[in-house]
C-alpha cells in the first residue's frame, strides 16, 4: 500500500485505529450528526469531493442519502483511506467512489465538482496555509453554483470551549503532527474565496458549525 502523504494537515496513520472511538468517547455521535446536517442540500446525481473524510462514516451517509453520480474520496492518511474503503466493501452501497490517497495537490487541474465537503479538516491548518494553499486549491475545483459543505470547530469566547479545542489541537500536534497551534478563523478566510454562506447551524453547544457555502453561478 502507498504510504501516507504528510503535508500541513499531519499524519493521521497512527491515530486511525482509535480515531472513531476517541471521537465517540468525547462527543458521542454529535460530530457525525453535524456532518450530515446539510446533506439534504446536495442535489441528486452530483459529483462530490470529500476531503479528509477519515474512516468513512460520512461517506456511508453521503451514499445513502445523496445518490451521487461520482464521489472522489481524497484522504491523506493511507490507514484512514483503507478503513473507509474497507467499510464500503463490508456494506456495498450504490454509487461510484474513487478512493484517492493524497491531499489537494493530488487533484487534477481539470477536475470539477458540484459539491466539496471538508468535515473537520480546515481546523488542522494555520490561517496562512488555508489562505495561500488549501482554500484556493479546493476552490478552483468547485463548479459554478457549486456547494461547499463545511463542518468544523469555530472560535468561541467561552474558556471551557477554548480549553477543549486547545487540548484537541495539542493532542493532534503530538500524535499526528498537525501544523497549527490555534484554531484559524476559517469562516473569514472562506468568505474571501468567492463563496457565499447560505446556511449555518451550530452543534455541540456552539463549538461546531455545519455550513453551506455557494459559489457564484458564473465564475
Ligand atoms: C481530524 S480528522 C477528521 C476525520 C473525519 N472527517 C471525521 O470527522 O471523523 C482529519 C482527516 O483529514 C485528513 N487530512 C489532513 N490533511 C488533509 C489534506 N490536505 N487532504 C486530504 N486529507 C487530509 C487526515 O488524514 C484525517 O483523516
UniProtKB/TrEMBL annotation:
Coiled coil: none annotated. The keyword Transferase applies. GO terms for molecular function: methyltransferase activity. InterPro entries: Methyltransf_25, SAM-dependent_MTases_sf. This is Class I SAM-dependent methyltransferase. It comes from Fibrisoma montanum. One of its GO terms (biological process) is methylation. Residues 48-146 form the Methyltransferase domain. Pfam families: Methyltransf_25. Keywords: Methyltransferase, Transferase.
